[in-house]
Design goal:
Blueprint lengths: L63 H9 L6 H31 L39 E3 L5 E8 L17 E2 L2 E2 L7 E3 L4 E4 L2 E11 L2 E5 L1 E3 L9 E8 L10 E8 L7 H4 L26 H4 L39 E10 L4 E10 L23 E3 L4 E2 L2 E9 L11 E8 L9 E6 L2 E7 L21 E8 L16 E13 H4 L15 H6 L1 H5 L23
Parallel strand pairs: 5-8
Antiparallel strand pairs: 1-2, 2-21, 3-9, 4-5, 6-7, 7-8, 7-21, 9-20, 10-17, 10-21, 11-12, 11-20, 12-13, 13-16, 14-16, 15-16, 17-18, 18-19
Length: about 575
């Protein structure tokens, strides 16, 4: 074919010249003449520049005719458009249902328990609310029906408001484990105890609360035991509390200090900063009874300066921190600064051994301040009766510079030890802020009344110029502990063996029928004796057991209008 007679048209298969096909050196000495054509063929430097347009690439190769037709068209019922819109709708609806609808639906489908009031039905003093349907309630479901009501020693009808039968084995009482109880982790230094209290020493077994004391070196002490508190979780104001207990050890081995007691919620047992100037005050008068040492700045009256044992000072107390003499706008829990507040203590029992007879006995006491002259309260039989003088007598210990003890001692069953047998102990307590002369506490040992103190037992004492001490009106919480201190009773290590265990079968709290329905009577923060805000505002003192004074915790005493002036 004649090269000059053929015309090559551009196509995707045409072979454009390149540096590969055209010599750039003297590699070829001769070349053929270029093809002659009647039309000029465009030369492309790269092969892809010669590609024909893609028929389906409308973006890079638009079709004006087709595009104009599409611009004029409208398809509101396009299936693809509706599918896209529906998908977007479903995604949005799903997100709304997940994050808004589900919580609302769950709220109405799975409603929690109805909370009658603060600290009742599952709320404790620290604000924790149970979320589980099997969470413990105020009244243990295992409490027998015939134990849910009682007739009081005062003739009143009482109803159960709180109980724990301890029937579920393996319970623990570390912080946060239980809504009503917490085991402490500290050394109870105020009474110079020989043991360290550790939560591991307390559990439930065979339907009983078990507190175990072991001889083991820890925290520079030789013994470990347990203290269980209901502080700021469950409190009650007036009522009857009963516990069924089997004492630890042996009735012929003195030295242990098992106890069950109650204390005002403004003081946390073992946290010394909280009890300084508050324990064991139960006083609502503005007078010399609120002063440091129960004396004026010049150490008068003489009766208080020398009214203690053998002519020593009657009191070493720093003064009532939260007294009725508190200056206006001062640091005070309320409801007003003129309300005397404190931390009274009522002991259900503290067990010991009478080493003269080797008979076990319990002291049942009300600890209070300020003090009578020489710690002598009115123990006349019409004011402070003992019901069986063959087994009960007034305690020879009446107090000291840090407390006055209104106390009696009762012999107990020597077989109710070491889990072999149980005995019941308790007290019935009534106080009325509007009729304070009605107040009383009646103690129970061996399931029977042992003795009673009345408002007149702790009446005014003109000798030391103090007014009426109060049968407690503060909300009280429950404490179980197994301790050991030479200050309470000397240890007979020859006969004491370890480990030893204290067993509690149950604890039950009743209140008069006209009181039981009032949620504030089972609260740690009743409006008439509030504690919650004060505790929250002084958290350092209430959360650190290593602080022994109010000053160490970073706080100052409010001024006393009579002693300091405002």
């Amino acid at each position: 074919m004649n090269a000059g007679a053929r015309v090559y048209a551009n196509s995707r298969f045409s072979n454009a010249p390149s540096e590969v096909s055209i010599g750039t050196s003297n590699e070829k000495t001769t070349t053929s003449a270029p093809i002659a054509a009647t039309t000029t063929v465009q030369q492309y430097p790269y092969m892809w520049d010669t590609k024909d347009p893609d028929l389906d690439d409308a973006l890079h190769n638009p079709d004006p005719v087709r595009d104009a037709a599409l611009d004029r068209s409208c398809a509101p019922f396009s299936s693809r458009g509706w599918i896209n819109a529906s998908a977007l709708f479903l995604i949005c609806a799903g997100i709304i249902v997940l994050f808004a609808g589900y919580p609302i639906i769950d709220h109405y489908v799975h409603q929690g328990p109805k909370i009658i009031g603060f600290n009742l039905g599952g709320i404790n003093g620290s604000g924790q609310v149970p979320e589980l349907t099997n969470f413990p309630q105020m009244i243990d479901s295992d409490t027998p029906d015939d134990a849910r009501t009682r007739t009081g020693y005062d003739g009143q009808s009482y109803s159960l408001v709180f109980s724990d039968e301890f029937n579920k084995d393996g319970r623990t009482f570390y912080p946060g484990d239980d809504p009503y109880w917490e085991a402490v982790d500290l050394h109870y230094w105020p009474t110079v105890d020989l043991e360290w209290y550790d939560p591991s020493a307390i559990t439930t077994q065979d339907g009983k609360l078990v507190i175990t004391m072991t001889e083991v070196r820890n925290h520079d002490l030789n013994f470990r035991s347990g203290m269980l508190q209901g502080w700021n979780k469950f409190c009650f104001t007036t009522g009857y509390i009963e516990v069924s207990v089997s004492m630890p050890g042996s009735p012929v081995a003195p030295g242990l200090w098992p106890a069950t007691w109650t204390m005002g919620n403004l003081g946390r047992a073992g946290y010394g900063a909280t009890t300084e100037g508050t324990w064991p005050y139960s006083y609502d008068s503005c007078d010399l009874g609120t002063f440091p040492n129960q004396t004026n700045a010049d150490h008068t009256p003489q009766a208080a300066a020398t009214g203690g044992e053998d002519g020593t000072p009657l009191s070493f107390m720093p003064g009532q921190k939260l007294s009725a003499c508190t200056c206006p706008d001062s640091d005070h829990p309320g409801p007003s600064v003129s309300k005397g507040r404190g931390v009274p203590e009522i002991d259900i029992f503290e067990a010991q051994i009478d080493v003269g007879r080797f008979v076990p006995e319990v002291s049942q006491s009300f600890q209070t301040a300020p003090y009578n002259y020489q710690y002598e309260f009115d123990n006349s039989s019409d004011v402070t009766p003992i019901y069986d003088t063959s087994i009960t007598k007034f305690n020879s210990y009446k107090g000291g510079v840090f407390q006055q003890a209104i106390s009696a001692v009762t012999d107990i069953d020597s077989t109710a030890y070491a889990g072999q047998k149980y005995a019941t102990y308790g007290y019935e307590w009534w106080s009325n802020p509007d009729k304070r002369d009605e107040g009383f506490i009646t103690w129970v040992a061996n399931g029977k009344k042992s003795w009673t103190m009345t408002a007149d037992t702790i009446g005014p004492d003109d000798t030391v110029q103090i007014s009426q001490r109060l049968v407690p009106e503060e909300p009280m919480y429950i404490i179980f502990n197994l301790g050991m201190s030479p200050g309470f009773q000397q240890q007979d290590f020859k006969h004491l063996t370890f480990p030893v265990q204290m067993f509690v079968d149950y604890v039950r709290v009743y209140q008069r029928d006209d009181v039981a329905g009032n949620a504030e009577a089972q609260s740690c923060n009743p409006s008439s004796y509030p504690t919650a805000d004060y505790i929250a505002n002084h958290n350092n003192a209430y959360s650190n057991p290593n602080l022994t004074t109010w000053d160490q915790a970073g706080y100052t005493y409010p001024r006393n209008s009579l002693y300091d002036g405002c």
